[in-house]
Amino acid sequence: MTIQTHILGYPRIGAKRELKFAEEAYWKGESTQAEFLSKAQAIEASNWQAQVDAGLSLLTVGDFVFYDSILTHAVRLGIIPPRFDEAAKLNPVDQQFYLARGRAPACTDVAALEMTKWFDTNYHYLVPEFTVNQTFTADFSDLFAQIDRAKAFNTPLKVVVPGLLTFLYLSRIVDDQQKIKETHVCGCGSEHKDIAADKATLQFVDALIPVYAQLFDELKARGVEHVQIDEPILVLDLASEWQAAFERVYNLLQRRDGLKLIVTTYFETLGTNLNLAVNLPVAGLHIDITREKVGEFFWKKVIDQLPTHKILSLGLINGRSVWASDLPALNEVVETAKKALGDRLWLSTGCSLLHVPVDLNSEQVPAAIEGKLAFARQKLDELVALATGNIYANEKLNKTAQSAFELVGQSRPEPFAVRFKVQQEKFKLPLIPTTTIGSFPQTQEIRAARAAWNKGNLSNADYEAAMKKEIAYAIEQQEQLDLDVLVHGEAERTDMVEYFAGLLDGFWLSKFGWVQSYGSRCVRPPIIVGDITRPNAMTVKWIEYANSLTNKIVKGMLTGPVTILNWSFPPAHRTRREVCLQLAEAIRLEVADLQNAGIEIIQIDEAAFREGLPLRKADQAAYWDWAVKSFKHCSSSANVGTQIHTHMCYSDFKDCLPQITEMDADVITIETSRSGLQLLEMFHQQGYPNAIGPGVYDIHSPRTPSADNMRTVINGALQTIPAERLWVNPDCGLKTRNWEETRAALKQLVDMAKQVREELAA
After folding, report:
1. Which of 120, 226, 445, 592 lies in disulfide reach of 637, CB 3.0 to 4.6 Å?
2. Cβ pair 250, 216 in contact under 8 A
């Protein structure tokens, strides 16, 4: 019996980030659209060839997009918010970039679409915006062109389409004035509690069903036999309105003779949606078994309840881990499933391979972990090995003995009110002080110096001198702009997690292990391979140097333990809690060293604090316990007069404000510019006792924000936060911008803050 094999998606960035460089060259006007598309299609073809070479049964088509699949789907459906009315003169490629970046050739700069996390990953999707009277004018010609190109590989095709209900669930409704009317920004997987909002969103089902039906008919006419319909919200705690909508939608879409619809879920088990999912009137179901708890065997429950005519695709290969699979153990699952399902069994990855690096063959792997890793290309081989029975025991996968680790978490003894009073008297900052999140532009000079140093063409002393020159320039620019609290600019850091991983024991840094975060932005997540310890101070010399150049306060900049963990690949045989507490101890020691060096404000970034939260309510309390405990521990070495800041960005925080409050940072800076002030509304409803700096402009867009746009955020914040506890800052770091953009935006920020101060004083 031949078992069908397929994947849910493949990394689209290219093995050496070719898509990133092609996109950025096109945005800068250094290449034509035709040249960009040619390079993009070469990566697309390489992805298909990898699947063919591995011997997969089905070729996955439709997962390759230029920026984000939800964004692409929105543009294909003609969902262009009114503020992008000039998009009508653009072709679909430029329309996507306009919505994502707020900038396009011959178009007025506007606020980009909101960006937030894709469920519990570090990938960001663009949130579609519906008007209350939204209509749909579908154009899937680019998808059909992909299909035509894929046919040249002479392998049966499976086309990927975002599910109708997941697409609606992750969208939001705005009114004609672009103010938020209802919001469903649920990349974090939080449940919908507003039934009226759910009904407002679900009203679009009737308009979208004919669009999907027409798409499926066209796919069938083009010879496509299988369609992967991504409906990951089936793993969430769905309200009854959404469960009922699934039954209705798929009953209306089921009659497609000759076209097999495979409803696809991932990132969790089906939980209480099991009965709903297995009985949807479709040809098959995909489930992710890589996220099951030890001993849970939820996949057996699915097999037991699956109707006897349906396909079951088992996601066996972990699409979010870089560790090699235990093939003998997985083969036991395959053998059991094969007895129950026969030729109705398909094998796949748990989720898209978008979340792992492309190819391990590009790396020089240390002997200690050689044979233990598998990137996307190697996971294809693992999948085919399971299907063909070519099973081998990987002796290198034996569990590595690691020391037991337990930590009695510490916290600062003084309450915020006491600390804040001491700090206010000590720093004597103006009302609503201005600062930035930490990083400044990573210039060509910085990159060139780093590249030469890494190749051995620049001495340590010359590299340090080059970095100090950039730090001095950053301080000079901030003083000219008259910012109140400065940063050193992080010239020496490639990435906020990678930098610290390179200085801590217990990590391995790959050379080409890039993973897409959003658009052209790629990160290289470190791999945790052992116990984490801090052999030396990591940041002190750079901050001390910056501090020596100015009479103003310079913040020390650290990355928090939860973020380092969530943006790394965790070890195979250790709990996340243990790893996070080890990281917390390392950061606690760094805080103490910075404080001893005279650094009076220290920012411990927790950009990913929300990201790792389990998707189900029942599993969340344990995460919050160790996440909050870890942050409080790493800041516990700060004395009463040392001000601890933290930063969070691009996630859905509305249901975790109690935990953010419990972290007890003196100041939190947080994204608010793209999310339409929703977060400020949550602070207004629930209250927040400490100081806060709402992000007043979106740094991910190249457009220069106006002072009026920034003022809108501050005006909203002043309705909730007393002026003496309010800061002003961008919503994230500035490393991806250039200095011209940075200076222009920060000048607007400082001028606006001074104007507000004058008005408040009057």
Report:
1. 592
2. no
Q: Where are the beta strands (DSSP E) in 193-334?
A: 226-230, 260-264, 284-288, 311-317
What whole-number distance in Å separates Cα of residue 442 and Cα of residue 446?
A: 6
Asked if the model's pLDDT at residue 407 lies above 60, the reply is yes
Average pLDDT over residues 171-183: 60
DSSP state letters, 629-653: HHHHHHTTT--TTSEEEEEE-SS--
Amino acid identity of residue 550, one-letter, is T
514: nearest Cα among 494, 492, 493 = 494
The upper half-sphere exposure of residue 572, i.e. CA atoms within 13 Å in the direction of its Cβ, equals 17
* pLDDT recorded at residue 186: 46
Please, where in the chain does CATH 3.20.20.210 lie? 4-397, 418-503+538-761
CATH architecture of 4-397: Alpha-Beta Barrel (3.20)
> CB 292: neighbour CB atoms within 10 A?
15
What stretch of H or E contains 161? strand 157-162
Taken in order 167, 173, 176, 180, the sign of the CA dihedral is: negative
Q: How far apart are CA 301 and CA 68, in angstroms?
A: 34
- How many Cβ atoms from other residues are within 10 Å of residue 185's Cβ? 24
470 is in an annotated binding site: no
Number of alpha helices (DSSP H) and beta strands (DSSP E) in the chain: 25, 24
CA distance 629 to 179: 37
Is residue 676 annotated as involved in ligand binding?
A: no
The rounded distance, in Å, linking the Cα atoms of 720 and 684 is 5
**pLDDT tens per residue, range 294-352:** 889 999 999 999 999 999 999 999 999 999 999 999 999 999 999 999 999 999 999 99
- Three-state SS for 594-631 is HHHCCCCEEEEECCCCCCCCCCCHHHHHHHHHHHHHHH
Domain 418-503+538-761 of CATH type 3.20.20.210: yes
391 marked as part of a ligand binding site: no
Is-contact 162 73, C-beta < 8 A? yes
605 is in an annotated binding site: yes
Residue 574, strand partner residues? none
14 assigned binding-site residue: no
Under a CB-based contact definition with an 8 Å cutoff, are residues 374 and 323 in contact? yes
- Is 309 catalytic? The answer is no
User: Which single residue is written with the structure tokens 């992008």?
Assistant: 84
Backbone angles phi, psi at 103, to 5 degrees: -145, 140
Average pLDDT, the chain: 91
Other CB atoms within 10 Å distance of the CB of residue 536 = 10
Signed CA dihedral, 27, 31, 32, 33: sign only: negative
Which H/E stretch holds residue 124? strand 124-126
Measured between alpha carbons, how far apart are the two ends of the chain, in Å? 82
DSSP assigned state of 113: P
Take residue 545 and report the two structure tokens written for it: 């140097």
Is 437 assigned a ligand-binding role in the annotation?
yes
Q: What is the pTM of this model?
A: 0.91
Distance CA 122, CA 100 (A): 17
Residues sharing a CB contact under 8 Å with residue 599, sequence separation 6 or more, in sequence order:
543, 544, 547, 554, 555, 556, 642
How many CB atoms within 10 Å of residue 125? 23
**Contacts (Cβ under 8 Å, ≥6 apart) of 759:** none
Contact assessment for residue 314 and residue 387, using Cβ atoms and an 8 Å cutoff: no
198 has a pLDDT exceeding 80: no
Give the strand pairing for 505-508 and 129-131: unpaired
pLDDT confidence bin for 732, thresholds 50/70/90:
confident
Distance CA 185, CA 181 (A): 12
> Which structure tokens are listed for 267?
């990132």
For tokens 């590595």, name the residue.
Answer: 400
Residue 439 marked in a binding site: yes
**Model confidence at 552: pLDDT above 90:** yes
Tokens at 58, concatenated? 């089905």
